[in-house]
Fold this sequence. Notes:
Elements: E1 2-6, H1 12-24, E2 28-31, H2 44-59, E3 64-70, H3 74-80, E4 88-90, H4 94-102, E5 108-112, H5 118-130, H6 137-152
Helix pairs in contact: 2-3, 4-5
Amino acid sequence: MRIHIATDHAGLDFSKHLQEHLGAAGHEVIDHGPVEYDPIDDYPAFCINAAAAVVRDQQAGVDALGIVFGGSGNGEQIAANKVRGARAALVWSQSTALLARQHNDANVIAIGARQHTVEEATSFIDAFIAEPFSFEERHVRRIAQLAEYEATGDIAGKHVDH
């Protein structure tokens, strides 16, 4: 699988570990930055580029997911979710990693590099990558509604305030 990753300065050391770990597991890892430590860098472009690459790959039929991380993971998740077609979930446990895939078909996860040990974060990522989407009708329906809103600003048959 192709895995797109991005971080900010808070996750740079973890990024290097993750690239080695995922590469050793047979994944193709694409690093969207940063490449060097800058304590005042800005994560949005890195995370947006990673999420956009995941969406492009998936639309082209490439098996791809994304991982974005920073101090808390919150800003990185927000940035990734600005990309049309990205479904980024903030992950803080094994359960949230599994549910992100099972129920939400998340194609990007965000993790707080300062919130977890390297071992914990790596286990969340491994669980996320290994878990398939459930394809349960209720989850498919909800994801379709989100995509419809993203594309049109409305959800047919549902009340969406404007």
